[in-house]
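Lecture notes, unit on protein representations.

Consider one protein chain, 271 amino acids long.
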Amino acid sequence: MNLVNGKPSSSISIFDRGFLYGDSVFETILVLNKKPKNIDLHLKRLKLGCNKLKINNLDSRLLSKCIKKALSDINNCILSINVTRGTAIKRGYNINLANNPNIIITTSEIPKYPKEFSTKGIKTKFAKTNLMKSEGLSRIKHSNRIEQILASSEITKNFPELILCDSKGFVIEGISSNIFFIKEKNFYTPIISESGVEGIMKSLIIKKIKKREFKIIEKKIHKKDVYNYDAAFFCNSIRLAWNILSVNGKKFKGNKFASEIISITNNELSK
């Protein structure tokens, strides 16, 4: 089902700011048995994004009604929420040209990936496309995703997810995922204060790591140093966790604590 401000529609105005400038935020949510997974966390990040972009006047009641309506006749799907600044009265960057946000909701089939991606893992490599620094936009899911779009053109059957770095070679994330590196009982995740998204699944995994009294460390990790770790894995809210077998052809030796967290993610957090 496709909804625009609660009404069935598959189109928006050509003057919508999200269409014109990517002036919007979005969330992608896994729905199982009509229940959107971690919906509160997704909506919290959505509203944080609206605040950062100064998208005011978001009608939270309408948003809730739109979500309920979109899921009224479907059990399992991907729920996509996009909130744009609204339809502009004329062209131009001035944010005051639009002050009534548009709420766009779509549902789609849950993508299917080979089972071994979750059970065994995948090979990956560094993308040629780098992420630009933008401290004011880090952590949120704004709709300016041209870097991820360009990087996704590098994905192949043998490399279904790639590692994105900044211009100085520091690891940030996957194209559509966060990343962890593991050494003994220590779990490391890249600093994303200058670019990158604060993933919902990442935050849930960190809680699981702390609960087991493993150490979680946020630090700058240069691409040349990733081979010093025992293991690594990608995570996101749809695919959950994918173990990384190798980076640019160099294999990780493996780590039982990493395997434990990956297993927990793909079992406990999928329910």
